[in-house]
Specification:
By secondary structure, this protein is mostly helical. It has 2 domains: 41 residues, no CATH class; 244 residues, no CATH class. The chain contains 13 helices and 7 strands. The strands form 3 sheets. The protein has a 3-stranded antiparallel sheet with strand order 3-7-4. Helix 6 packs across helix 10 and helix 12 packs antiparallel against helix 13. The longest helix is centred in the first third of the chain and has 31 residues. It is globular.
Length: 353
């Protein structure tokens, strides 16, 4: 390749070469001048060098997400219109099967939520509305209803962990039971959350110094902040602060079978399981955790839908996980996640069917 190849051309070429030569990664590396890094085995840790900020995802991934968003927005708008009609006529609510009076009831942990300022306009070509400040009324009405297949949710759970729970990785491990076949899945991924935390630390330091940090300064900072440790052999490993981010991050309890990626089942498993969670995906996810959460949700929900195993309790669990992520201010509320969850709630069958 010659000097001067545009980034939008170079990145897809590198992606193709990585797949062709079966490399673990093929990335531009370095902050000052940049260099091509080919890897046959994964690194101990990905560092957020500034050259990575110009990475763009594969065009087919962007196109598939945009197509899904258009479909979800259109179908969610139709459902909201039906729900608005039900409210005016006193019929049962289209999302939760409750009457308008029942749909207005709220659980105790939702009393502090603000009214959404979401704008329903989703026509193609229009300006995307401002992100809502609180869970949308439609999703709130779903959470206020009895939990599908399990009755009314009452406060915090105790005892053995159960499928569909949203809780920190630390608590999930404390409450796990041998043989329960459940596993906590970080949504968004633990690696992306750690890298996002590193980015914030670097941004703070760069603001204080009023300049960009060099590669070595980034490494020194992350060592000082205890995000990484460096072995005598030069290997980079997670430090105590990175481990804390991982332990205290929210996870969603799924079965081991649902979580694991198997080549024989390309539509199954978690989007970020094992080899699926490439260096490039982690870097891109760390720059937009809300979009990463959206992609993680959609991968699970679309896979279950294609296999005809999608039930309302699965969507309910993701709505609750979404709420908890925003309550903790790990992501902002997103119109697109609202549309996604409402769309699959309507598609899901009842757990008892």
């Amino acid at each position: 390749m010659s000097v001067g190849v545009p980034r939008r051309v170079l990145n897809p070429v590198l992606t193709g070469m990585r797949k062709w030569y079966r490399l673990t990664a093929l990335l531009l590396d370095g902050a000052d001048r940049g260099r091509l890094m080919a890897e046959l085995n994964p690194r101990g840790m990905v560092l957020p060098f500034h050259s990575h900020d110009s990475l763009i995802e594969a065009s087919d991934v962007t196109r598939a997400r945009d197509d899904a968003r258009r479909l979800e927005a259109a179908e969610a708008r139709k459902l909201r219109d039906r729900m608005s009609g039900a409210d005016r006529t006193g019929r049962s609510d289209g999302a939760s099967g409750r009457t308008p009076d029942q749909a207005s009831d709220r659980t105790a942990d939702q009393e502090s939520e603000q009214t959404s300022d979401r704008t329903p306009d989703r026509a193609e070509g229009t300006t995307l509305p401002e992100p809502p400040k609180a869970l949308s009324p439609e999703l709130r009405s779903i959470l206020a209803a009895p939990l599908p297949g399990r009755g009314k949710r009452r406060g915090r759970r105790a005892g053995p962990v159960s499928k569909g729970e949203s809780l920190t990785f630390r608590k999930a491990k404390q409450r796990e039971v041998a043989g329960d076949k459940l596993t906590p899945d970080h949504i968004p991924s633990g690696a992306a959350l750690i890298l996002a935390a590193q980015r914030k630390a670097i941004a703070r330091e760069e603001k204080a110094r009023n300049r960009k940090l060099s590669d070595q300064e980034i490494i020194d900072l992350l060592k000082t902040e205890e995000f990484i440790t460096v072995t005598p052999q030069g290997a980079i490993k997670r430090g105590p602060k990175a481990e804390k981010v991982y332990r205290e991050a929210l996870t969603l309890m799924v079965t081991g079978k649902e979580h694991e990626y198997r080549k024989a089942d390309p539509e199954g498993g978690s989007r970020t399981h094992g080899s699926r969670n490439t260096d490039q995906q982690i870097l891109l996810d760390s720059r937009d955790l809300a979009k990463a959460t959206e992609d993680d949700f959609r991968f699970y929900l679309a896979g279950w839908d294609k296999k005809n195993t999608l039930v309302k309790s699965q969507v309910y669990s993701m709505i609750l996980h979404y709420k908890r992520l925003t309550d903790r201010e790990e992501i902002e509320y997103s119109n697109r996640i609202d549309d996604l969850l409402l769309y699959y709630w309507e598609k899901a069958r009842n757990d008892t069917d």
